[in-house]
Amino acid sequence: MTDPKKPDQNVSDDDWAAAMSEQSRHEPAADDDPWAEAMAEQEAAEAAADGSSDDDPWAEALAEQEAVEAAADETPSSAPSPAPKSAGDRIFRPLDKGKESGVARDLEMIMDIPVKLTVELGRTKLTIKQLLELAQGSVVELDGLAGEPMDILINGYLIAQGEVVVVDDKYGIRITEIITPSERVQKLNR
User: What residue spans carry the Basic and acidic residues bias annotation (predicted)?
Assistant: First the structure.
């Protein structure tokens, strides 16, 4: 590479960079050269950062925090400081206290929830035409057999089977069998 002021002289890249750096330090930056202005601002900012941190609010805050922590570590307290409590401790009761009565309390919470018990004699499928042909006195054949136990459903889920009884002129159901979970799945498939 050659110096533009001296075209017949060869200059290495390192020499060229050193010469340009030296020249930029001694010559004032031209107002029409934005690169020179930006470089000057950057050098000034780097020099300020290397100097003092008086203008840096983060440095001041960190120094203040370190001073407070150091003072807290050096000052022995005669009484241990209380453990911090969350807002949840003040509002909600702890769940681990009273484990013995926990099961009874949990059951008490659900005892008053209403459920719908249904006794099903049987089922059948009808077409719309058959449905429209129904009149008073029509007989609809169900899939349940006479004498077969009836299904007892709680909220639509089969839980037991039983037989019909009459109690004080009202129908009732006597539970004859509680359905196991595997039997419930089989009954759902029919």
Answer: 87-96
Other CB atoms within 10 A of residue 150 CB: 17
CB contact set of 37 (below 8 Å; sequence gap of 6+): 29, 31
Domains of the chain: 111-189 (2.30.330.10)
DSSP 90: H
What number of other Cβ atoms are within 10 A of residue 151's Cβ? Answer: 19
How far is the C-alpha of 170 from the C-alpha of 146, rounded, in Å? 20
Kind plus residue range of the DSSP H or E element containing 101: helix 99-110
Model confidence over 96-127: pLDDT tens digits? 555 555 566 777 788 888 999 999 888 899 99
Is the pTM higher than 0.70?
no
Q: What is the DSSP pairing of strand 150-154 with strand 6-10?
A: unpaired
